[in-house]
Amino acid sequence: MKKALLILIIVLLSGCIDQRILDEVRLTTAVGYDPGENDQIKVTAVSPFFQADKSTINETFTVLTPLSKDAKHKFSMSNSKPFVSGKIEAIIINEELADNGVLTIVDGMIRDPSIGSRAYIATTKDEVSKLLQGQYSSQDNGMFISDTLDHNIISGSLPRTNLHLFFNDYYAKGKDPFIPDLSQDKNSIKISGVALLKEDQIVGHVNQDQLFTFKTLVQKKTENDTFLVDINDEDQALLFKISSHTDYDIQNLNNNPEVKVKVKMNLTIREYSESELNEKKIIEIETAAEEKFKEQATNLIQQFQELNVDPIGIGQMASAKSRQWNKEQWYDQYPDINFQIETNFKITETGVAE
Amino acid sequence: MKELQRQVSDRYKVSPYLVLFLISSIQIGVGVLGFQSNVVNIAGNDSWIAVILAGLLIHILIWIIYKILKYGNGDLITIHYDVFGKWLGGVFSFVWILYFIGIGVVVLRTFLQVVQVWMFSDINMFWVTSVYLILIYYLVSGGFRVVTGVAFLGIVIPSYLILSLIYTLEYTNFNHLLPVWNHSYRDILSASQTMTFSFIGFSALLIFYPYIKEPEKSKVWGHAGNLYSFILYLIIILITIAYFTEGHLVRHYWPTLTMWKTVEMPFVERFEYIGISSWGLIILPNVCLAFWAASRGIRQLFRFSQRKGLILILLLTLGANMFISSHDQLVTFNEYFSQIGFYLITCYLPFLLLMTYFRIGRKKKS
C-alpha cells in the first residue's frame, strides 16, 4: 500500500513544473540597447535560428520600451515562442544611451538569477540594432561577440571583463569600471578599445593601439599579447609578451601620495624588419620597447588623472593599506599623484632562426 | 499516557563518532547560501573575524551543554522536570520545543524560497512543502537511527560542492581582506551575533544525548563536528570577501549562489541548478533532526506518542510555510527567530548549567 502510494506520488508530481524545451523557446544570446524616440529605449534581442543543414542564422527582434526588462514581455507578444534569458552572453549598450547611466539599464541583470556572471557588457558608438543584425559568421551574434571577446581576453590585449567584474568595480570604493568598446567594421565586429566609466557614465576611451599597455597596467599578471615597436625610426620589431607582472607601490599615503609602478615583462621577438639580430640589437629593441611602453603608460595615467577615473584601482590598493582611507579625499588627491614608472623588459627568445 | 522516559534501550542508540555528523549536518544548511551578506553588512572585510568568534562561542556552548547533560543525566525535558519541577520546567521545555520547530520551519521555508527565486518561480508552495514533509515524516518516524543516517549522508554526499569554489578563485582578490581590523569591536561582536544564527541547531544535542552509546566519549566528536562546519564557514567567507567588493556583495541575498554563476563546465551552463538541487539533501538532516528533537520533546513533555507529535509539527509547518508568503516576511521572521535563538543559547544555557549544578550536580558529588 505504502509503495503504491509512493509510486502514485512520483508519477503524478513529476512534470508538474513548467518545462522549457530548447526547440520551443527563443534562446536570447545577446541584447542591445539603443536610444529610441520619446525617451524610450530600443531593445534588440538576438537569437540563433537553427537550420536543417546544421547552420545557424542570426535573427534579431526589436521593440521600443520605457523599461529595459519589460522588453522580454513585448518580444514574446510578437513571436510564436517565448523568449528566455538564460543564455545571454553579451549586453551591448549604445554610447549615447550610456550617457544617461549604464546602471539603469543593467540593474535588472543583477536581480535576474538566470543571467550568468560571465556575460559580457560592452558599448558601441554605432547603432546597436544594426551592429547585431549582420551575419558575421556561421554563429549567431551573441555567441560571435562572446567568442571574440573571450579569445582576446585569453590571448590578446583585452583586459579581463564581464558582468561580475563590472558590478564589482562599480560598487568598489576606489576603483572605476571599464567595458570593451565595439564597432562595426564592414562585415565584422571589431574591438576598438575600452570605454572608461566614472560611476556609471562613460567619460573616456582607450584606443586599440593603447590596449597592450592598458592591459598590462590594470591586470597584475598578463600573458600572450603582441607589441609593435619602432626602433630608430627605421626598423620595426613585433614582440610577443610571454608574461608580465605589474606591481604598485604606494608611498606617503596620508599627505602626499606617490605611486611607483613596477612592470616586469618577458618577451620574444616574432618579427624583425632587418634580417640580422645580434646581442646589441636585442638590447636596442628592449630599450625601445621600454620607452614606448613608458610613454604610453604615462599618457594613459595622465588621461585617467585628468578624467579623475581610476580603472587600475589605485584607490582600492591604498584603502587596503590605510585605515583612515576616505573615498572623497582620495579622489581629490588622485589627479595630483605623482606616478613613477619603472620597467624591466627582457627578451628571452628570438625564435627558431638565427 | 506514557511515562517520562529516562533511559533509552541500547538498540536505539548510535555510536559516539556519529555525533560529528549530527552536529555539523544541522549547522550546515541554508545559512551557507546567504550568511555572508548579513555579516558583511555589519563587519565588512573583518567578517571572517566575526565567523571565528562565533565558531569559538559555539565550542564553549557545546562544552556547557555537555556539562549540563552530565550533571542532569538525561535529556533537556527530564532535566527541566528535575530542576524546575513539573510546571515551570514544562514551560521552559515548551519554549525549547517551539524553538526546534522554528528551526525546521526557517530552514525549510528559506530553502523553498531559494528554489522559488532561482529555479521555479511558479511552484505551488503548498504541494512542494507537502512533498517535503511526507519525506520528512517517513524519515523521522523511522527513529533516531534513521535520522542519524540522513545526517551522515547529508554531510558526505554533497561534500563535493566545496570543489565548486575552485572556479571562483579566478576572480578572487585577497587584498579585499585588508586592512585587518578596521571595524570597531562593537561591529565585529554584533556581526558574530548574526553569525551564530548559521550555527544554530547544535542544541538538538540536548535532546538526543541519551541516544548516544557511551555519551562521555562523544564529547570530542561533538567539538569536531562544530570545528568542521566552523572551518567550512570560514573558508566560504574568506573566498566571498575576496570574490566580491563590499558594496557589490551586500546587494545579493544569496552570495554563494551568485558565486556559482561563475562556474562554467562543458556539460552544464548553470551550476546553481546542480547546487540548489544538492542543497535539497543538505537541508534534509537539518529539518529531520530539528523535528525529531521537537517531537521527542513533545513525547516527553505531554507523554503522547512521538508519531502523533510529529504529525502535529508537520501540519504546523505546512501552515507556517503558507503563512510566510513574501521575501520580506521571511527576512523579518528570520531576524526575530535569530534574536530569540541567540539569547536562548547564550543566556539560557549558562543559566541552566548553574541551576542544574546547584540542584542536581552538587548533591551527586556529595
Overview of the structural elements:
The complex is a heterodimer of chains A (354) and B (366). By secondary structure, chain A is an alpha/beta fold. In chain A, 32% of the residues lie in helices and 34% in strands. In chain A, the strands form three sheets. In chain A, strands 4-3-2-6-7-8-9-10 form an eight-stranded mixed β-sheet, sandwiched between helices. In chain A, strands 11, 12, 13, 14 and 15 form a five-stranded mixed β-sheet that branches. A two-stranded parallel sheet of chain A has the order 1-5. The mean pLDDT of chain A is 85. Chain B has a single domain (10-110, 137-360), classed as Amino acid/polyamine transporter I, CATH 1.20.1740. Chain B is 73% helix and 0% strand. Chain B is built from 15 helices and no strands. The two termini of chain B are 35 Å apart.
Topology diagram in text:
The complex is a heterodimer of chains A (354) and B (366).
Chain A: H1 2-13, E1 26-27, E2 30-35, E3 41-50, E4 56-65, H2 71-77, E5 83-84, E6 90-94, H3 95-98, H4 103-111, E7 120-124, H5 128-133, H6 141-154, H7 163-171, E8 178-185, E9 188-198, E10 201-207, H8 211-218, E11 221-222, E12 225-231, E13 235-251, E14 258-272, H9 279-307, H10 314-321, H11 327-333, E15 338-349
Parallel strand pairs in A: 1-5, 2-6, 6-7, 7-8, 14-15
Antiparallel strand pairs in A: 2-3, 3-4, 8-9, 9-10, 11-13, 12-13, 13-14
Chain B: H1 19-27, H2 31-43, H3 47-72, H4 76-119, H5 125-140, H6 144-156, H7 165-168, H8 185-199, H9 205-208, H10 219-243, H11 246-249, H12 255-260, H13 272-302, H14 306-323, H15 327-365
InterPro entries (chain A): GerAC_N, Spore_GerAC-like, Spore_GerAC-like_C, Spore_GerAC_C_sf
Membrane topology (chain A): Lipid-anchor
Protein name (chain A): Spore germination protein
